[in-house]
Amino acid sequence: MDLQDRNELRELKKRLRKETLAKRKALAEETPLLFEEFSSKIIETLKLTDEYKKARTIMVFVSFEDEVMTHQFIKDALADGKNVYVPHILKLEKLMVPAQIFDFDKDLKPGYYGILSPIEDQVQIKDPAEIDLVVTPGVLFDERGYRIGYGAGFYDRFFSKLDSDVPKIGLGFSLQQTKEVPIDQFDIPIHALITENGITVFRQPK
Length: 206
Description:
The chain is α/β, with parallel strands linked by helices. The protein has helices at residues 3-30, 32-48, 50-54, 71-79, 104-107, 154-159, and strands at 57-60, 83-90, 95-101, 108-110, 116-118, 133-136, 140-141, 147-148, 168-171, 192-195, 198-201. It has six helices and eleven strands. The strands form three sheets. Strands 3-2-1-6-9-10-11 form a seven-stranded mixed β-sheet. A hairpin with a 4-residue loop joins β2 and β3 (95-101). The longest helix has 28 residues, at 3-30.
């Protein structure tokens, strides 16, 4: 892919991201009760999956603004005895690493882009090889399991460090689904997507 193609791909992703985020924001702001209902359905479906039930160690995003709400899910996972990791951004390296938390209310504070993140001087960075399940955010998801994220590439770089068979389950609303998103050689598909309409499996972990 030459420079012109990469620039065109970047601009297309940027446009699709902007359009989808506007729809998601409208769902949250114009129909907040529906937004909460859909979020609850998505989380309950996640908790019923074999991947969640079997996982001892989970990496899960801490929801921000109008993302599917994961705060209570994280608290429930901790109460279920799961080892819970959340994203921690190393700003200088531009990398995302898993950091373990033990108490949602005590171990997190606003960090990168205002997203709740592990308290800097208490961060316990963990080995990605220990992770059994990655609960993944995204802006737009297609029928193959590819996703458009927020543009920083944190998750694709993180996925590249995992065994390919570690289950990666995306959470999103049905308005975030589309037939096909533009991809490049660095994009890594997820295994399944959960929306308020249920779960779509793209490929089974071995």
